[in-house]
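Please produce the structure of this protein holding flavin-adenine dinucleotide.
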Amino acid sequence: MEIFKGDVLVVGGGGAAIRSAIATKEKYPQAKVFLATKGELGKSGVTAIACSDRMAFHATLEHTEPQGEEAWRYHAEDIYKIGGYVSDEDLAEILAKNGADAFHYLDQLGVPFAKVDGKAHQFVTDGSIYARACYTGPRTAVHIEEALVKRIRELDIQVIEHCMVSELIIKEGKIAGAFALDTRLHEDRPENLKVFHVKNIVFATGGPGKMYKYNVYPMGMGADAHAMVYHAGAELVNMEFIQIGLANTKTKLNFSGSLMRAVPKIINDKGEEFLPKYFAPGTSLEEIYNLVFEKGASWPVSYEHKTHIIDIAIYKEIMSGHKVYFDYSTNPTGFTFSKLSEKNRERYFTEQNKDFGAELRETSPLYRLKEINTPSILWLKEHGVDLEKGDLPEIAPCAQHFQGGIRIREYGNTNISGLFAAGECAGGQHGANRPGGNALLDCQVFGKITGEKAGEQSEKENFVPVNEQEITAYQAQLTSLLENKEGLPAYKVRAELQDIMHQAASIVRTEKGLTEALGKLADLQAKGIVLDGNGLPFLLETKNLFIAAEMVLRAALLRQESRGPHLFFANYEDSTPMGRKDPEWQKYIVIRKGSQGMELDIQEPYHR
Ligand SMILES: Cc1cc2nc3c(=O)[nH]c(=O)nc-3n(C[C@H](O)[C@H](O)[C@H](O)COP(=O)(O)OP(=O)(O)OC[C@H]3O[C@@H](n4cnc5c(N)ncnc54)[C@H](O)[C@@H]3O)c2cc1C
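Below is the modeled complex.
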């Protein structure tokens, strides 16, 4: 058994965690700081691997329109308004106000942001009026991670890799430490336990994407922190709001932006173009293809964008037993480029960087994609999908980002003393929709804030003792898990859980589906779970996913309206979701552990 004694433990290895650990050390050089991460630093988690058309980092900079000292207020308003008024307004302000500081920090660390005349080039996303999205290209997050990893290596911070934090030690409502396991030891034994005896803990463990059958998250992205804080008495919020969008199941690449604007032929495994049957009778093909084009700019499903009909169609087609593919080799039936609206054609030409001429542009989606985004064709080829040879990328609605999570307040603090959360595992700062670029910003802003606050608190506080009995009790708990022979192997349990979530809590949500899913989840849990070849960390991760999955299902069931990615239908067969209920549902759902199980509380968000 190894014991680590120090001031602050930061859990995670992504943008939020690394920024948090750096912030503690830069402001409090005497502090003893640990960073524990499940994988290898710089190689695990979303920040280290994410890639899309053009990854955005939102920030209101000195030159961002409309300029002036108060320009950040427009950004805060967008976060709040586009989020559907179900986030804490003051947290939106903190995000917006600290954007410039976060950007300049990364810039001076050497993140290669695109610039014009020495100033960050910014583009518009998600219906904002002002351009705030900074970027390096398709790998903005990776560049941020690389710069932060370089910086953390310069500081006296102890990084413990392959280390899964698995349980909190809390006494009288205060953090005393945490237990952790080595993720490389598949037959991990309780005697290999690591014990962190620390004054403050920052969770920055990312989103629990692995609860969904279709997701674009890397390995290890579970709900460990969500489950640990829930058992410890902390609150979670906005768990029903999850960014889900169309992505390739093989490469996990989001099919957004130009990949939609090339207007591919959308077919099922029988070659049928099924889209029209999901639109209202009489909808013209012209209208449908314009919507496919416009989906490029509204990637995650959202009630507020009419393009959600395409997500619904693809989801229902998959639910009816089909596979769905995008075919770039031939045009959709009846498509001609001239049928795109003038506005959409203009949008197309702003992106054009090759000109094959009008005739070839009309020939196929592949020619159009070559005109507006050749690198995406090359990227897909490198990853085993050759569009030029006629490969058909399989597409499904995939989970990409959790808007909600561990409920935080202005210092990233939770309702447990000494416990903080930052980045995607935290909730309350984003609403139902999250404007693109604000997740990477969030990680940097609340990463820094939590790190500094944890450092400050550590200076003032004493250690809460951890005793031998607590360690022995946890070891006994692990032993009983290892020795349990009743139940299904962990990999099977996880696959069933993912299926339940796909069926009930993806694009189409209904009262009936969610209620049945809660029953199925309980039945599955009751069967028990046994160790398989994936080891103890995988087993614990799977158990933790149950908690977060139940939160999503219960919150989705309670919110009987549509808002952001939460499309609630009166009946599965209905073609349109129920409406958004304003102002009645401008509220968020807070989740905590009660004496009888999970408690859900509808609350008024913090307003100015
Ligand atoms: C394809 C894709 C495109 C995206 N595009 C954008 C975009 O353009 N703009 C934007 O703002 N956002 C975007 N996002 C979202 C954004 O990238 C993520 O929300 C953000 O990177 C999450 O950072 P994080 O630090 O919170 O978590 P992560 O980077 O996911 O890191 C979490 C870390 O915690 C570790 N961990 C988990 N559990 C434990 C445990 N129990 N013990 C120890 N360690 C643990 C993991 O191994 C990992 O290292 C995108 C996401 C994806 C997947």
